[in-house]
Amino acid sequence: MSDLIAPRIFCVGTHHKTGTLWMRAVFRRLATRLGVEKRVVFPSTRKRIPPRERIFLFSWSSTFPDDLLARPDARILHVIRDPRDVLLSGMRYHRHAPVKGEQFLHVPRDDLAGRTYQEHLNALPDDLARLRFEMDEKHALTLSEMLAWDYTAPNRVETRYEDLIADVDCTLFRDRLRNLGLTEPEVAMGVEIFWKNALFGGLARPEDRIERVAKHVASGRAGQWRTRLPRPIAEAYAERYGEALVTLGYAEHPTRWLSDLRAEA
Q1: CA distances from 37 to 26, 27, 118 (A)
Q2: Which UniProt keywords are present, listed alphabetically (predicted)?
Q3: What phi-psi label fits residue 159: left (phi over 0), alpha (psi between -120 and 50 degrees) or beta?
Q4: DSSP 8-state code for residue 247
Q5: What is the Cα–Cα distance from 221 to 85, expressed in whole angstroms?
Q6: Does an H or E element contain 25, and which?
């Protein structure tokens, strides 16, 4: 990033079930403590960026406007997660997620005989059917967003959820904040907030988690698909999305990862 000018626009992009709640808590608190403006960026709305002041911008689907992504004074922290774990986490969460923040789950749909996404999901006979439905629905959109991202731009700070959830000494996150262009005192502040909001840190005890975090997070562990993804779903996933796993760096081959399954089903 040596050819880029000093950043003043700090963007944080995640995808559904890739650590969004965690990153939102961290960077909103950081912006507040720094006295820096913060706001969510929506694809359908455009608001002028201050001409000189620093600002934090968030997109929880990583759909920032192209002109914003191309700015030399912008840095973008982007977080992805193993799509197989996203599928599992999404299906579990969507069965009980509240309206706030997840409106799409609660809108009656003609193609579902007037039921909402959540109602239809819960009416299905078992987890196999629920995972198949999830794979065709929200998961397909989330994966398409991850695949559409430009991972080569010099102002991107790429991060994987699997690395963050294992970053118990905060070394990786400290590095990411430095790459964003924050000062050392700001980095130290960000690391403190990161740890306090981590499942291995300040939220290690379930009783210390606010209700929304408790509902949103089951375990947060990486690689859950190895023991929890039923083989029929895994085989269908490999056929449909195996190449996507390779593209994103989560598998070396579209189907060989199936040998790592240890789920009973």
Answers
A1: 14, 11, 35
A2: Transferase
A3: beta
A4: H
A5: 9
A6: helix 20-34
Q: For the sheet with 37-40, list strands across it.
A: 37-40, 55-59, 9-13, 74-80, 156-160
CA distance 226 to 186: 38
pLDDT above 90 covers a percentage of the chain that reads 83
pLDDT for residue 103: 94
DSSP assigned state of 96: T
**CA 240 to chain CA mean position, Å:** 21
Supply the DSSP string of 157-187, one letter for each residue.
Answer: EEEEHHHHTT-TT-HHHHHHHHHHT--HHHH
The residue among 117, 127, 81 whose CA lies nearest residue 229 is 127
Residue extents of the structural domains in the chain? 9-81+151-207
- Are 1 and 154 contacting, i.e. CB atoms less than 8 angstroms apart? yes
CATH architecture of 9-81+151-207: 3-Layer(aba) Sandwich (3.40)
Give the chain's end-to-end CA distance (angstroms, integer).
47
Rg (CA), the chain: 19
Q: Using one digit for the tens of pLDDT, what is the confidence trace for 164-185?
A: 999 999 999 999 999 999 999 9
Amino acid at 77: L
CA dist 35 and 57 (Å) reads 14
